[in-house]
Specification:
It comes from Levilactobacillus suantsaii. The protein is 42% helix and 11% strand. The chain is built from 7 helices and 4 strands. The radius of gyration is 18 Å and the shape is elongated.
Length: 142
């Protein structure tokens, strides 16, 4: 199951929701200001990152700039508590499934969350177009 976490209803969040819905992806969306992340959810997200906190934290956000100390100097318990109480420092949205994580709305990374069956139909449609067959499978490209 795909889960989308957001802390503000931005254009990126709206685009990601619409894109996933239009591409047959089954997902849940949760406002983490209203329902804060659990410790386990934060640790799970961190385990999916390549660059640790750099993949999750928006260093350009006002909330991040207002922090009294650097996130890099925090221990894990302090970091988890900070992310639970200050979700505004996180990138928006955060999309996760069993083994992938993406932040923001980027077509290249969000495509990984589309069901394989849909991607196969889309690929077959592209091949038909490339081969000059006029009839496609009614799959719209992203």
């Amino acid at each position: 199951m795909i889960k989308m976490y957001f802390h503000a209803k931005t254009t990126a969040v709206t685009k990601a929701m619409k894109w996933l819905a239009n591409h047959d992806a089954i997902f849940t969306a949760r406002d983490i200001k209203k329902q804060p992340l659990t410790r386990d959810e934060i640790l799970y997200m961190l385990s999916l990152t390549v660059d640790g906190t750099d993949d999750l934290i928006s260093t350009r956000s006002k909330a991040y700039k207002a922090l009294p100390t650097s996130v890099q100097d925090m221990g894990m318990n302090d970091l988890v508590e900070l992310l639970q109480t200050n979700p505004g420092i996180l990138k928006n949205p955060i999309v996760v499934d069993r083994n992938k994580l993406a932040t923001g709305f980027d077509l290249e990374t969000i495509r990984e969350f589309v069901p394989a069956s849909y991607r196969k139909k889309e690929l077959a449609s592209f091949f038909k177009i490339l081969n000059g067959t006029k009839k496609s499978l009614n799959v719209t490209p992203a």
